[in-house]
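>> received
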Amino acid sequence: MPAATVLRDRVKAHLLESIHHGEIQFGHSLNLAALSRKLGVSVTPIREALSQLEQCGIVKAIPNRGFIVPEFSIQEAKNLFSTLAELQVLALESSTFDEMQLAQLSDEQRLLQQTHTPSARLASRVTFHRLLRQQCENRILLDLITNLEARVVFYEQVFIMDAAFYEQIDNQNDAILRSIQENNIPTAALILKMNWMTVAEFVQQQLILQQVTTYEEL
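>> returned
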């Protein structure tokens, strides 16, 4: 892999981690010069990384302001989750699973159920879904899913603060696994879509509550 690509990917990973940990604030312009000094790289790989993140919806280019991390919105959440659900279903329907892969999924599901913090539950859930689609050979489809997933994870990090919420998700994941084990992919796909819509509805409810709270405080 070319050195320039490695550098760009390293910068991109750093930016994602910084956003995840709240070091880069939503709605604030990113200071490219400051990032350049902090990372010890030129502005070029930073711009390249930001351009890739813009394609994912993680950042947004604003005239005369540069790049910002866009604020959350109910409409974006609705569009993101529904689109990701459809793409995940497509990936599942084009996949085949052997005993080893099913064992990996079962192990990850057990790990998910043993975690007790929202961040750990989310991390395990993301891993479960990545394992679920790892047999899909459509690389374009997988790249689209990965890009959308990066933005979706931000929504879950901010708006799902109760680990108990994932108990319902656990039950759906168990049902997905059983359906795959029974070679009933249509049912697995239906539950998978329901799985994402369950999360989407919860996130949208939290966004509405946030808006109401903000309005009442004005």
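>> The chain is about 75% helix and 5% strand.
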